[in-house]
Design a protein that fits this description.
Protein name: DUF3027 domain-containing protein
Organism: Cryptosporangium aurantiacum
Number of helices: 8
Order of helices and strands: EEHHHEEEEHEHHEHHEEE
Radius of gyration: 53 Å
Distance between the termini: 168 Å
Largest sheet: 4 strands, antiparallel
Number of strands: 11
InterPro entries: DUF3027
Length: about 325
Amino acid sequence: MNDVTTRTVHRPAVPDSAGDGPMPDAVPPMESVVTGNPEATDAPRPGKAAARRAPRPVKLDAVCAQATDLALQAAHEVGGEMVGAPVDVTADGERLVTHRFAALQPGYSGWYWCVTVARAPRSKHVTINEVALLPGSDALLAPEWVPWSERLRPGDLGVGDLLPTAPDDDRLMPGYVLSDDPEVVEVEYEIGFGRPRVMSRLGREETAERWYTSRSGPESDLAKAAPARCGTCGFYLKLSGSLGSLFGGCGNLFAPDDGRIVSADHGCGAHSEALVEPAPPVPPAPMALDDDLEVIRTAHTPGSVEDSTDAEPLGHG
């Protein structure tokens, strides 16, 4: 950075003529001279700063702005009947203008067909640069893209799909090496022998929390209306390991959770001890017996034998 030096220079008075005369008032007795790099000073230069702060606005080219029919024709070639009425015209640069038309596609609210036109200097011939369907400030847009690993949800895995597990998955931890001990072989699968990775403590805690707060836990409407808990049901198959104290499998064919993991304090109406109580016996009604009878003789049907005639024995004469 160059130094700036200010030096005061004394200038002699210049007389009007060769003779002695008074010093004119227009000539100052001294002046200041600045040497060095004047741009190194801290004094602002308003001219250049103002030019940087206020760029010259782009002027809308009249020839390109009037080419609405040309732009509409180009939009129809791409969008067909989905191109609506003109909306506005904006200047993108020198002799560069964009015409916007309403988009009539269902589901594209706030979108516009944008046609950019341009022309060469000192030419009245307008040409098409590009045609595109672009969203406006209030357009209906699709959600931001999310990687598949983050948008995957339970139940998304279908037949033939593969879901690779990350090598650094916190839910898993390295398993143990194989053992030749016969006593260990009997329980090796339960404690992790023979598997590259087993569930970590974090994975077990997350699993227990997920199961307990699901519809197979104690807070579901089915469990609240149940007559008893699953832990006392004969169809409850208790899990082994650390999760066995709270969870088990349901083995009742007619239960809604058959074949699923349920918590011990879950319940449903298919509990093994939910027996139907027999109805109490209904006492029979007392028998009515009336021995006071009155015998009334009835007359024969007209046309039959007389009542006074003695009947022949066994109907023979």
